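Chapter review. Work through the record for Polysaccharide deacetylase before attempting the end-of-chapter questions.
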Amino acid sequence: MGGPLGYGPLVALTSLRRKISVSAALGLLLVPGCHAVEQAPPYAEAVRTSPDDMAGVQARTVTVATDHSVVGYRYPMLGGAHPMTVETRTRMARRQTAFLEDLPDRGTPELHQDATILAASPDVVGVRLTATTTVGAEETFEAHTLWYDDDSGEVLPWTSLFRDEQAIRQAHMAVAEVLEEGYNLPTRQLPGLVGEVARGGGGEKDGATPGTASLDEDATPSGDPRGEGRPREPGLADPERAREAADHWAGSPLEDLAFSTAGGLAVRMDPSRIPSAGRTEEVLVPVEPQDTEELLSELGYQAREAALSGNNADDDLPLGEELSAQGHTLDCARLKCVALTFDDGPGEHTGTLLDILDEYDARATFYVLGSLVDEFPDPVRRMAEEGHELGNHTWKHGDLARMSGNEIRKDIKRTNEAVRELTGSVPPTIRPPYGSLDGTVRRSVDQPLILWDVDTLDWKNRDSDAVSEYALTHSVPGSVVLFHDIHETSVQAIPAVLAGLHRQGYHFVTVTDLFGAPGLEPGDVYTDAQVP
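Structure tokens for Polysaccharide deacetylase:
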């Protein structure tokens, strides 16, 4: 089996942990005011894999710098619309909105968010999300983890890794013991929930210890520690119970846990709360494998096995057919989203518009004329490659309401094919020219019909300032905003639109992202995705 837990790489990983521990101890000699000690504090090496270093996975890194702030983020692209990608991006987007809505009057605050892989296998994907905020000389750091369970198809909190809440309580006790014995921290000085639990409180609801009732019923038999060969216990394997437990244990250091290279847990603690930790960016408290063994849920065992196997991405991972595929990445039901749409192109100004959109990592929807697709192939290909959405705006801007059903079908099909030949995909939606449609149009098309709720009238008023002001004044969460990229003045208005909406915490998405999937029905007409 290769190791005491049956994982082949365990011996090599443990050797690496020992080397790092020795290096950390020797490093104390180089810090002024520090003295070498006979034994370094207990140390865990966490299994954390950068998405840039993971075979088969691509990461997207974005930085938007303005005169009032800098926001940056990196996330792994796990295939179009993968639940972990959507949840990771959505949480980062919500954090970014909160940051931008609370900017101080002075300075240029910065928010940088990152995601690293904690575990990856056909059964589970674990991701650690971090956020570092800098305001002047003050810096704050936040971290938590998410776990995708392929069995349920849901993204779950850290509590899902544990058998029940009693197991969570025992994990806190294990951390407390390490801090007391390894860091010489008296029980009365143990920080946060770790201290509360160690002192006989913490983690209790209505005067009772949570999970106690289910512990006897659902505890893993001693002869079968992993619970293999039997149904998963109801405990925290139930997504709703796992989420309730996460709310109950909010603020726990276990929110930022990883598996250690030794096969146990590595729990991050704030070094400022541990005086004996010395000068270090983080304290990773080890919970040894023997202390972890009976605490994990089946998902926890699967996550540990994935972490210790090296998080090697391969064809068996539940990450979609194309790991780097562009697709639905934001849940706009939980965000301030707006869809910027551009009609009648592509044209000579479309390339400049794409450059402008890229500065804000903005996704837009282009309702193209089929007759212009072959005339401007490069912008069309670039739209698709950069994650924008192409919509069908008929072949030559014909009034669909004046056509027969057969004429409508031929026109839409011809434009669909022109786009598909260049991009490989058929436009998911249609925008009827002039917004003109009737029952015949609705019955004759196989795609949703998208109108708008914010008409900038840029085709009529060729004034960039007036266009941008109208868009900024009338856009609300869920808006579909109409522009035309064939007009230079319209393209010149977009920098101000992006800057103004970004400052308000908006996110720029495609039409299908705005409405969500599968939120659009063929033949139905939509103007916006505003929440009533």
